[in-house]
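User:
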Amino acid sequence: MPHYPKPAEGSWTQHYPELGTEPVSYDDSTSPELYELERDAIFGRTWVNVGRVEQLPKKGSFFTKELDAARTSIIVARGMDSEIRAFHNICRHRGNKLVWSDYPREETSGVCRQFQCKYHAWRYNLEGELTFVQQEQEFFDFDKADYGLAAAQCDVWEGFIFVNLDASNTTSLRDYLGEFAKGLEGYPFHALTQVHKYRAEVGSNWKLFIDAFAEFYHAPILHGGQYQPDEAAKVASYGYEALAYGIDGPHGMVSSWGGISPPKDLDMVKPMERKLRSGLFGPWDAPDIGLDELPPALNPARRNSWGQDSFFFFPNFMILIWKPNWVLTYHYWPTSYNTHIFEGTCYFVPPKTARERLAQEYAVVSFKEYGLQDGNTLEATQTMLESNTPVRAFPLNDQEVLLRHLHHTVRRYIDDYRLQKASR
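Assistant: Predicted structure:
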């Protein structure tokens, strides 16, 4: 079970003695060799979120996902039996990418009854079976049943679609996601179908952006310009302290104050926020989503000042659930040891009025501004981590316990993988 220590019990970090308290090396963010191990030890073996069921609204719906870190592209499709399946995006004839539109490296989506290869017109149904081979009689001892699409393990949790590329994996998705996911079940994610997405190519290691969102120690400083001047000075003077941290296996969470929707004093926020009744914490007027009580994983400290919880599901998926009944998700997709793609997605209840729509869009652009501020430091960090400097390890404070846990977890996965390879 995850443990949520109270500040009165001592430091957060010391509740997890296996993490230690010494300075942490960031060599795992600058090494091409370690990145290649991460690709196999982590992204090739864990459950990874690739989308939501709303992207597959009817039979024949599909989308592709480029998983560069796992060295593959996948197709996720809803079959004619309504089941959701995932396949490696490769034709069994000569290895051509099977599903793509104008550019092979770009993701695509649509609706079809079969997938047809652009090269020699081999066709596959939505269940992955090979259904047509051009000039089939020209092949030797050929049986179409032997050449269906290569499947990947696929499962759905609360509408989120996950894949696992390790054919030998025997850990179910729910077992892998652990107690945090169990404690979130029943939250009406399905009601939040108004979606806004951001995507950015970032010149840093993928873990550095996770680090940025796994602590709020930076918020009073980095984001000070977003507050009213008097409020910014007050926030900077007293700093930040989370309501709770939790760790469960490779996953982590942080619970934060921020229940200022609306704020007690309207002078705390900018005129536009007052006008639209919205801001970074979301629209002030929370919609009814049919939630009589919070699932047990939310607001674990049971504080009235609670504003949002951030759940990080290793390796690269983060869910933020906000008190005013909206949700953010973050994905961090590695493309090399020092580059990655960041995706941010905002989920709201569909607006019923123009004012509700504007309130949601203001929350979205506020998130974008904060995200740009966070992302702006990453390339500067990466540049110096890779520089010829004698500084190789860094002190992490008690509020950075999830950063310490992330880098500890990555090293553990790599060490376990090395041991398994050596024992073969």
